[in-house]
Amino acid sequence: MLRIFVIVIIANAAMAQVPFLGTCPNLEAAQNFELDKYLGKWYEVERYFAWFEFSGKCVTANYSLNENDTVKIVNKQISSLTGVATSIEGIGRLIGRSDDSKLTVTFPSLPLPFDAPYWVLDTDYESYTVVWSCTNLGVFNVRNVWILTREPKPPVAVLEKAYQIIDKNNISRAYFIRTDQKNCPGSY
Ligand SMILES: *[C@@H]1O[C@H](CO)[C@@H](O)[C@H](O)[C@H]1NC(C)=O
Ligand SMILES: *[C@@H]1O[C@H](CO)[C@@H](O)[C@H](O)[C@H]1NC(C)=O
Ligand SMILES: *[C@@H]1O[C@H](CO)[C@@H](O)[C@H](O)[C@H]1NC(C)=O
């Protein structure tokens, strides 16, 4: 049990997931996924919150293809406390068919790199994506959900589409926090 807790704490420090009792719900990832259209820059507008999470603002993700067809991930953020910008590089891999929107994501520079699931529940490629990550850990599971958008301050209609996906999948909205995307450096 202790070991599970240590893993959860490390995993949470890295991925800031929220623990739930039981196993991961059986959700369906997006069909006919087109990775090419998904690449590029996304802004994090909301994510699941865990109390031990370090605060970051101006969080962005940039996805591009590596030469071996894995996905190069560059996540950037600015510390709300210190104002210091940091970035972390990861690798994403499609785990099923190429039109299946299920990936695993690894950040090799983390103290405990592990393959985290990254499922696109739905995206229109042009304005929003809803990303689901759930890992079974014994008697409970840890979850994260992200709403990423192409614009740092998306119109309400775009957020509504994302919320519809979240509601359709019975994902609780209670753990969402808004990511601060105000006063971010333009070139960032
Ligand atoms: C995203 O990453 C690609 C590949 O490294 C790079 O060419 C592109 O300029 C980046 N885009 C942004 C907006 O940072
Ligand atoms: C694919 O390329 C990336 C970037 O060069 C590298 O970090 C990664 O280990 C490679 N993955 C595989 C499965 O070859
Ligand atoms: C969401 O909950 C409703 C009512 O309990 C259920 O009918 C539906 O199948 C659930 N949907 C998913 C994706 O779990």
Automatic annotation (TrEMBL):
Name the Gene Ontology molecular function terms of this record.
lipid binding
Its cellular-component GO annotations read:
cytoplasm
- Matches recorded under Gene3D superfamilies: 2.40.128.20
Q: Does the keyword Coiled coil apply?
A: no
Q: Which CDD domains match?
A: lipocalin_apoD-like
Tell me the Gene Ontology biological-process terms attached to this UniProt entry. Answer: brain development; lipid metabolic process; lipid transport; response to reactive oxygen species; tissue regeneration
Keywords carried by this UniProt record: Glycoprotein, Lipid-binding, Pyrrolidone carboxylic acid, Signal
- List each copy of the Lipocalin/cytosolic fatty-acid binding domain by range: 34-178
Q: Which residues form the signal peptide?
A: 1-16
InterPro entries, per database record: ApolipopD, Calycin, Lipocalin_ApoD, Lipocalin_CS, Lipocln_cytosolic_FA-bd_dom
What family does this belong to? Belongs to the calycin superfamily. Lipocalin family.
Q: Which PANTHER family does the UniProt record give?
A: APOLIPOPROTEIN D
Q: What is this protein called?
A: Apolipoprotein D
Native source species: Lasius platythorax
- What phylogenetic lineage does the species belong to? Eukaryota, Metazoa, Ecdysozoa, Arthropoda, Hexapoda
